[in-house]
């Protein structure tokens, strides 16, 4: 979007804005880092992402022996790779209602993930990968 403004003296000034929205979200789910079965960004179909407004069920749980250490979000046409953990809210809880879960931050005893972007091949979505150290 380009905006041009003219001041009282008739001098024009033009500013260009880029507005990015994540409207092209594809598959999202967990992945198993340090697994011999799955790649670092492959998402097993048996685990479903819990989306806002949904109630947690057994299909939203994982019992991987190294714990939850990868979340992958596919985004078509991602305009920026400058995504980091501050772009997300992280909550921890043990009830079916995520709105009751505790919001965690960088000062929490639970570490925030490292966030990276894996660029998709031509015609394929990029993948935002949130990775926790499997040893922490």
In spatial order, strands of the major sheet run 3-4-8-7
Whole-number mean pLDDT: 74
pLDDT < 50 stretches: 13-20
- What helical percentage do the residues reach? under 10%
Give the number of DSSP strands.
Answer: 8
Identify the overall geometry: globular
Distance between the termini: 44 Å
Number of separate helices: 0
Cα-atom radius of gyration: 19 Å
In terms of structural class, how would the helical and strand content be classed? mainly beta
Multimeric state of these chains? single chain
Task: Sketch the topology as an H/E string, one letter per element.
Answer: EEEEEEEE
Strand content: 25-35%
Put the structure in a nutshell:
The chain has 136 residues and is mainly β.
What does this structure look like?
With 136 residues, this protein is an all-beta fold. It has no helices and eight strands. The strands form three sheets. It has a four-stranded antiparallel β-sheet, with no helix packed on it. It is globular. The chain starts with a strand and ends in a 5-residue tail after the last strand. About 6% of the residues have low confidence.
Tags for this model:
136 residues, mainly beta, four-stranded antiparallel sheet, two-stranded antiparallel ribbon, 8 strands, 0% helix, globular
Secondary structure blueprint with pairings:
Blueprint (H helix, E strand, L loop, with lengths): L1 E5 L5 E5 L8 E6 L39 E6 L14 E3 L9 E3 L9 E5 L7 E6 L5
């Amino acid at each position: 979007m380009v905006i041009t403004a003219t001041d009282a003296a008739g001098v024009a000034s033009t500013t260009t804005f880029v507005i990015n929205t994540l409207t092209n979200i594809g598959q999202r789910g967990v992945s198993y880092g340090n697994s011999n079965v799955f790649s670092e960004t492959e998402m097993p179909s048996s685990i479903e992402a819990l989306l806002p407004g949904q109630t947690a069920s057994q299909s939203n749980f994982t019992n991987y022996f190294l714990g939850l250490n990868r979340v992958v979000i596919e985004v078509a046409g991602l305009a920026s790779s400058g995504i980091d953990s501050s772009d997300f809210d992280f909550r921890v809880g043990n009830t079916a209602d995520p709105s009751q879960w505790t919001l965690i931050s960088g000062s929490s005893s639970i570490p925030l993930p490292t966030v990276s972007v894996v660029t998709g091949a031509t015609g394929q979505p990029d993948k935002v990968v949130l990775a926790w150290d499997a040893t922490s």
